[in-house]
Amino acid sequence: MRIEDVTMKLTEFFDRILDAHRANKYFLKPYLINDGEKHPFAVICPGGGYSMVCLAGEGRPFAEELNKLGYHAFVVYYRVKDKARYPNPQEDLKRAIKEVFAHTEEWRLDTDSWSIWGSSAGGHLVASYCSENWNTPKPTAITLVYPVISMGEHTHKGSRDNLLGKNASDEMIKRLSVELNIDENYPPVYIWYGTADDVVAPVNTKMLTEALEKAGVPYRVEEYEGIGHGAGLAKGTVAEGWFNNAVRFWESQV
Questions:
Q1: What is the pTM of this model?
Q2: What are the average pLDDT values for consecutive 10-residue runs of the chain, which has 254 residues?
Q3: Could you give the angle at which helices 60-68 and 242-252 cross, rounded to 10 degrees?
Q4: 20 to 30 Å CA-CA from 197: which of 99, 144, 148, 171?
């Protein structure tokens, strides 16, 4: 095994330990390109069922891959578990975006091109954030990776219980079901999922794309045969091209 592979596996191992024991509070981790030039940037919300923030699979690897492609990146640690009740995670994402824009010059950010990425429950966080009137800058595009979209019949129950509680009202379920809250002002969306996802039902993506189509919002959806939940970058699988496709979609919206 190459030394690079050993280093990567060790990094992932320690990331997973940190994921499980990290303090349950807001934190923003920058991944900057230190070349003195301005670069577009992405804000990343890893998944974890609103019970944890998965840096190992959907945070650091995404940020480092974006750095390689010439983008600054920022991973958001939002409140989870007993602190995940709405609107705490959405307010943490709002805070992260405000913090990033407050450092535009210091971090050499190109604010004409920026995106928000979210995986699984982090995808719901991003998608629901964008359907709310948070009075913050509108991203050029968003990327959703095997996302939770609905809080209704086809939701991921653990995500809904953490975000809304086990006895959520119909009003809150409708408010946080993204497919019911899309209009023409919604940002362009790249979204992908695997047909073998037995954690988040793929119908979540179908409901979102139908709503985007109805509202006339630009989107690209990709389905990958046999890919399950939590694939992350999906290196070495039929889905490994998704990351570059997401970046190209983002660039096409500038």
A1: 0.92
A2: 57 60 88 97 98 94 98 98 97 97 98 98 98 82 98 96 96 97 96 97 97 98 97 97 98 96
A3: 60
A4: 171
